[in-house]
Amino acid sequence: MISGSLVALATPMNPDGTLDWERLDGLVDFHVKNGTDAIVAVGTTGESATLNPDEHCAVIRRVVERVDGRIAVIAGTGANSTTEAIDLTKEAKNIGVDACLLVTPYYNKPTQEGLYLHYKTVAEAVDVDQILYNVPGRTAVDMLNDTVVRLADIPNITGVKDATGDLARGKELIQLVGDRMAVYSGDDATAVELILLGAKGNISVTANVLPKDMADMCRLALEGNAEDARKIDQRLAALNNKLFVEANPIPVKWALQQLGLIQEGIRLPLTPLSEMYHQDVLAALKGAGAL
C-alpha cells in the first residue's frame, strides 16, 4: 500500500506554454532526494485539463522513466467521459505506473449511481490499482461516502482521495472503508488530522515546494506522533492557505518559480499569479522556511 507524502506534481512549462522536460526531470529528482513517497503525475495540480491526450501520456511516461523505480508513481487518468478515462488508464498501466488516480466526472453532474457505474466500468476494464478522487469544489459533483462503500468491494479500487476538507466526513469514511482501501487526504490544511484519524497519507500541493517537511509530517502522523506532526503542520499552515489564493496550480507554480525550480509557464485559461498576491505568497514561503 502506498502511504505517506504523495506530491500532486506541477507540470513545468516554458514561457510559451510548451512542456519543459528538463525541469520535469529536475522536479522528479528533487522529490526523490527529499523523501517524497510517491509522485502523482498529471492530476489537477499537473494541469491535466490543459494537456492534450498525447502530452498527458508523455508526461506520465517521462515521470515513470525518470523515477526508475525509486519511489511510486500514480497517474492521473480521470476524465468526464468514461471511455476516455478507460483509454488513459490503459495507457498509464502500459507505461508502468503503480496506480491511477481518477477524479469524479466533472461538469456532467452524474448521479451517485452514475458515479458507481463509471468507476466500476473503468476498474473492470483495466487491471491496475485505482484510487478514487472526490473534490466537489472543482468538479460540481460530490461522491458520497455510501457510494465509496459500494466501490470498496471492487478488488482493484484500492484507495480514495478525500479533498472535501471535512474531517467529520473523512473520519466516517475511514471507519466505513478503512479496512478495505486506503483513505488519503487531498486537503493540506486538514491532512495531519485526517492521518491521525487513520488516513494513509496526503496527496499534497504544498509538497511541491517543501517536500521534506511534508514527508516528515506525514511520517510522524502515521507513527502516531501527534505533537511533532502538529508542530510541522503549524509552520506550514499559512503556506497551505496561500497556495490557494487563486485556483490551483496558479499559486504553487509561481512559488516554484520563486524557488528557481521551474520557469514562468502556465496554460490558458489559467494565468500567472495576480500581482496583488505576490507578497502574501512570498511571506508564506519565508514563514514556512522555503526561502
TrEMBL record:
The record marks A49, N80, E84, Y106 as: L-lysine inhibitor binding. Pathway: Amino-acid biosynthesis; L-lysine biosynthesis via DAP pathway; (S)-tetrahydrodipicolinate from L-aspartate: step 3/4. Keywords: Amino-acid biosynthesis, Cytoplasm, Diaminopimelate biosynthesis, Lyase, Lysine biosynthesis, Schiff base. InterPro entries: Aldolase_TIM, DapA, DapA-like, Schiff_base-form_aldolases_AS, Schiff_base-form_aldolases_CS. Its EC number is 4.3.3.7. Pyruvate binds at T45, I203. SUPFAM superfamilies: Aldolase. The record marks T44, Y107 as: Part of a proton relay during catalysis. It catalyses: L-aspartate 4-semialdehyde + pyruvate = (2S,4S)-4-hydroxy-2,3,4,5-tetrahydrodipicolinate + H2O + H(+). Pfam families: DHDPS (PF00701). One of its GO terms (molecular function) is 4-hydroxy-tetrahydrodipicolinate synthase activity. It comes from the Bacteria. CDD domains: DHDPS. One of its GO terms (cellular component) is cytosol. The keyword rRNA-binding does not apply. One of its GO terms (biological process) is diaminopimelate biosynthetic process. It is found in: Cytoplasm. The active site is at Y133, K161. Belongs to the DapA family. Homotetramer; dimer of dimers. NCBIfam families: dapA. Catalyzes the condensation of (S)-aspartate-beta-semialdehyde [(S)-ASA] and pyruvate to 4-hydroxy-tetrahydrodipicolinate (HTPA). This is 4-hydroxy-tetrahydrodipicolinate synthase. It comes from Alkalimarinus sediminis. The gene is dapA.
